[in-house]
Amino acid sequence: MMDPVSVQRIVLREIRLALREPFSISSGTVTHRRILLLELTDAEGVTGWSECVAGEAPNYSPETVDTAWLALTEWIAPRVLGCPLHAERILATLEQDFRGHRMAKAAVEMGMWGLAATRARTSLARLIGGATGRIPVGISLGIQRRPADLVERARAALEQGYHKIKLKIKPGSDIAFVGAVREALGSKAPLMADANNAYTLEQADHLARLDAFELLMIEQPLAWDDLVRHAELQKKLRTPICLDESITSVERAQDMITLKSGRIVNIKPGRIGGVSESRAIHDLCGRHGIPVWCGGMLESGVGRAYNVALASLPNFTIPGDLSPSSRYWERDIVTPEWTMDGNGMMRVPVDRPGIGVEVDVGMVEDLTVRKEILAA
Ligand code: OSB
Ligand code: MG
Fold it and tell me: Which of 13, 41, 193, 307 has its CA 20 to 30 A from that of 215?
């Protein structure tokens, strides 16, 4: 059992980091990430860094960078600062009479795990029960203007060794795009699609046309908070549905299993409330024969550390959206940067204490556009 940790100080910073290329999903395009970073310090001066995955606009979840900032300063920090708490218990503490804001809550929860790993002089991956030293990497490709542009990027990804290629889709950029990639890359290429809520159940026949392309799965075709219609849709599709946005807690994962709304879960710790809740979903799905994989939110190297550690758990049997730093950034804010070898594998830093990478604090300070120090 870990010791409880008493966080004395949380430094909130918002940085701006330019993506190497714009990233488009059905609900919008991002060219720069506004990233909320947390630096937690305990009574002995040990620090832990974490990242909030909320975006600039509420087009993925209702949370944004600004709502997370408010939730953290007004409600979350006052509840944790100066209180001895186990990382496993943080989310329960934050859920008491406090609805929603799971991304903001997750940022503190994850920071507590990183801090606990540093204190225990063990890697985050080992601390949370990680089982493997190398994980297969997948890539998520944004919506492109023409099918040929998507084919070019998908082919390059396959050549780089990626184990799964996710194609973002929306009405008008779906059948022809996915079909062109399948045709160009052949029947063995590990392809999937992600619609980010761009369809309605009335479009079930249209979506069923994707069955012809033998995709590994189609991610979140319907509304962000829906489970019932996804169950209806799954009956009409041969392709497995994977839920992302809809799974915000272990209870929602349980509902998905009960209702048969999907057959695969995309776990993002930053969306779900952190490491403990993610592990609970991982364990639940494992017991029900539901494979899980770790999604991404275009994280910096800080948030990525938590995803990589989580993805080393045994029921993460499908490659995650865990691309190396260089896919997103000219230069990442951590050393060493996250890398992928020629076989599409990423090393889990099990031999380094804490999150396994050092934050380049000087670079972070240079990129900071907003900062607030919260103290006990
Ligand atoms: O739906 O998985 C998604 C990025 C932003 C918002 C939602 C999603 C994504 C991705 C990016 O697919 C995955 C990555 O971080 O590489
Ligand atoms: Mg998704």
Answer: 307
Query: In the chain, which ranges are continuous DSSP H helix?
Result: 65-71, 77-80, 90-95, 102-119, 124-127, 147-160, 175-185, 204-208, 228-236, 250-259, 269-272, 275-287, 301-311, 325-328, 361-367
How confident is the prediction along the chain (376 residues), in pLDDT tens digits per residue? 678 999 999 999 999 999 999 999 999 999 999 999 999 999 999 999 999 999 999 999 999 999 999 999 999 999 999 999 999 999 999 999 999 999 999 999 999 999 999 999 999 999 999 988 999 999 999 999 999 999 999 999 999 999 999 999 999 999 999 999 999 999 999 999 999 999 999 999 999 999 999 999 999 999 999 999 999 999 999 999 999 999 999 999 999 999 999 999 999 999 999 999 999 999 999 999 999 999 999 999 999 999 999 999 999 999 999 999 999 999 999 999 999 999 999 999 999 999 999 999 999 999 999 999 999 9
In order of their start, the domains of the chain are 5-121+358-375 (3.30.390.10), 126-347 (3.20.20.120)
Q: Residue 232 phi/psi, 5° resolution?
A: -60, -45
Q: In 3-state terms, what secondary structure has residue 107?
A: helix
235 belongs to the catalytic site: no
For residue 4, the Cα-to-chain-centroid distance in whole angstroms is 26
Ligand 1 pocket test: pick from 21, 164, 244, 298 the residue with the most ligand atoms within 8 Å of its Cβ. 298
157 φ, ψ to 5°? -65, -40
Distance of CA 104 to the CA centre of its chain: 14
Indicate whether residue 140 lines ligand 1 (CB < 6 A). Answer: yes
Q: Which of 44, 47, 46, 22 lies closest to 33, judged by CA?
A: 22
Q: How far apart are CA 308 and CA 310, in angstroms?
A: 5
320 CA from centroid of ligand 2 (Å): 11
Ligand nearest to the CA of 321: 1
Q: Is the separation of the CB atoms in 160 and 153 below 8 Å? A: no
Q: Are 27 and 60 in contact (CB under 8 A)?
A: yes
Phi, psi of 130 (to 5 degrees): -60, 145
Spatial contact of 276 and 306, defined as CB atoms under 8 Å apart: no
Distance (angstroms) between ligand 1 centre and the Cα of 140 equals 7
